[in-house]
Amino acid sequence: MIRRLLFLVPLAVFAVLVAYFALGLTKDPRKLDSVLINQPFPELKLAAIEGRKEGFSTADLRGQVTLVNIWGSWCAACRIEHPFLMQLKEKNLVPVYGIDWREKDPRDGPEWLKRFGDPYQRIGVDPESKAAIALGVTGAPETFVVDRNAVIRYKVVGPLVPEVWDQTVGPLVERLRKG
Amino acid sequence: MIVELGHFALVLALFAALAQCALPLAGAARGSEPWMAVGPPAAAAQAACLAIAFAALVHAYVTSDFSVLAVAQNSHSLKPLVYKVAGTWGNHEGSMLLWVLVLALFGAAVALFGRRLPASFRARVLGVQGAVGAGFLLFILLTSNPFARLLPPPPDGNGLNPLLQDPALALHPPFLYLGYVGFSVAFAFAIAALLEGRVDAAWARWVRPWSLAAWCFLTIGIALGSWWAYYELGWGGWWYWDPVENASFLPWLAGTALIHSAVVVEKRDALKGWTVFLAIVAFSLSLLGTFLVRSGVLTSVHAFATDPERGVFILVLLAIAIGGSLALFAWRGPQLAGGGVFQPISREGGLLLNNLLMTTGAAVVLLGTLYPLLVDALGAGKVSVGAPFFEATFVPLMGPMIAAMAIGPHLSWKRADLAGAFARMRLAGVAMIAALAATLVLQDKLSIGAVAGMGLAAWLAGGTLADLVERARLFREPLASSLSRIGRMPRAAFGMTLAHLGLAVAIVGMTGASAWKIESIQSMAPGDTVEVGGYAFTLVGAGEVRGPNYLALRGTFEVRDKAGRVVAVLAPERRDYPVEQRQTTEAALQATWLRDLYAVIGEPTQGGAFVTRFYVHPFVAWIWAGCVMMAGGGFVSLSDRRHRLGAPAARRRDTAIEAAR
């Protein structure tokens, strides 16, 4: 009997491990780096992208709920979320501001927008990563949800795809508008 | 088109794997010959489909087809061809495809070489392999399809992380997977044995070469990874106890225990349940490693693309595979009665002690690796477990293991005479005392760890060589007679000697590189000289150079010894890869048997100076030389007649079949 129990020990240990892994999975490691959440959006004043007059400044964000999207023409994952950003604009769901990050050539960004469409209200350029550092950006794309007092309320790491919008960002934007 | 063919072949492979799983297992349960016969052709079909799929993916990388998402994210048209090919497995999707390809190739090899296995046994082994393959193919197709398209395609790709553009790292994953997945064969044999309710010497004879081959590949894979970390990351260390490193080390520890306990099953018909358990554990830890690296439950300095959705899938897969096999073990394992009895002081006893220490070591490493996760899951905050924990727990466990390892080969089976063994080991005693004395005299500052490490290494080398001397009756018989005895020694004995010596060599390297490492960080202008560990490093100059896909700052250092002779000119670089927007350090090093000189150039500081780092690593090359010897020993042992697949099996098969009746 004791011999039988001995053979059960590995299974029991493994069951405990699985429980821990399952718990661990519910904690999204990507939520860790959100020290900026509920902090005011850093004061930025970025120059305009070529072909546009107005750049991007933090003052633009006040008075409305907005998204700020970090992108670059060099970023393959930005191509994935791009059609959805265009939809946001067409359906007038939420204004999206762009920060064009680390272009090798300042003409690359406008060229990219001309080719695929321009979903942004205003765009600032960030060739030297000043804004990216202030925002703690680890890679493109990243999208910040900013409330009408220009306080960061959420950050999406990676492409803003429809699922993320439906499950998290869309409801949050609604809530922020009401409250 | 080729990409779609690859995708199609991947789907076909899934169906082949399902057939390979379901029919032979059901056939073996019902005793249906035709159903069991589906196994080998299904295994071959699965391997062929995956070879086609993998070739299609390599083709997409080589031709820089950026309409494929994975290619666009990980490759670039300007990348050298060899890294375009290596880029295939330098990311999550491609590496998973390589993983199942290796698994299917092992499955096909079992089908091909296993003709002499009892039919029901082979059917079960192939069925289990098919089940594992089907699980992973589902995972790939549902959550990480390497053939997903990106339309319209971007003008160029993101590039492969330049840290990974390196020959050692191009080879590291294939070797690692040959090791990880190689244990799937031992796993499948273990499950088949539990289903059949029988483990015998013939079973161990089959499991040993497969496990040994997997172990050799894993040894090489880990050594390549460690070597790469040493010269590429520029931190001057060779092992960081990082979760990802531990993930590869855990199956190695379990596999080492397995190849030793399988000997006991083969020779003495004992430790059966334990060996089956180790076979399950070795592969389970390989699976766990795959899970930890990809699911994002643990953060690591070199994590793969992490994705909780994938994590859930892998966790379910793990729960089924590992949980299922451990449940089967709990149910059928107690019936595996051992035959041979033995005294504690015996060869079996020594191997069992080795096994217990190895598995305890593995448990400690597993605990240290998972501890941050356990604490986080309990909501107690974030902790990280680093090198000090492992040095305080794992390293002391290995001390007695190595001490016993030298004695083991001198013990006879069943019952041994410890005093006689020690008498035969005078050489080991002499070597150990000499090493202890030399270490105490030669080292500048007293380090107990260094003395212990060198002493143990000498004891192990001496004990291993004493065994060789004993077998050859060297110094007791004429030399010619001794040499002919050595000539007639089985290759497996040679392999064991070489591998054990390899560990001794590696311990010298690990001890020397940990205890006597000298490092120095400073800011230097051209013309400055810094003294490090008896060597004078002079910055001769620094300038920009242009590589194929990077720009670099290159410093040139002259290194002089105490006599003022130039012993090395080192030219480390700091590379800037514009496409990937990443910087890498290219350390420069000059390696000799006694020490490595290692230089890194860093950021420019004010006034035309640069941050520089120098290391003198004594004996560090011995680490990798030791790993090569260990893997080499494994391969020599594999070439032994007794292990040659099929050769000894003819007679065995009859006995096995009779036993089955």
Task: Give descriptors for this structure.
heterodimer; A: 179 residues; alpha/beta; Glutaredoxin; five-stranded mixed β-sheet; 7 strands; 17% strand; B: 661 residues; alpha+beta; six-stranded antiparallel β-sheet; 21 helices; 10 strands; disordered C terminus
Write structural notes for this entry:
Chain A contains five helices and seven strands. With 179 residues, chain A is α/β, with parallel strands linked by helices. Chain A has a single domain (29-178), classed as Glutaredoxin, CATH 3.40.30. A five-stranded mixed β-sheet of chain A has the order 5-4-3-6-7. In chain A, helix 3 links the parallel strand 4 and strand 5. The termini of chain A are far apart. By secondary structure, chain B is of the alpha+beta class. Among the domains of chain B are: 1-165, no CATH class; 518-618. Helix content of chain B is 64%, strand content 11%. Chain B contains 21 helices and ten strands. Chain B has helices spanning 2-30, 33-36, 39-62, 69-74, 81-87, 92-113, 119-143, 167-196, 201-232, 243-268, 272-295, 308-332, 347-377, 387-407, 418-424, 426-442, 448-472, 479-488, 491-515, 620-638, 649-660, and strands at residues 518-524, 529-532, 535-546, 551-560, 566-570, 573-577, 582-586, 588-591, 595-604, 610-618. In chain B, helix 7 (119-143) crosses helix 8, helix 10 (243-268) runs antiparallel to helix 11 (272-295) and helix 11 runs antiparallel to helix 12. Chain B starts with a helix and ends with a helix. Chains A and B meet through helix 1 and helix 2 of A and helix 4, helix 11, helix 12 and helix 13 of B.
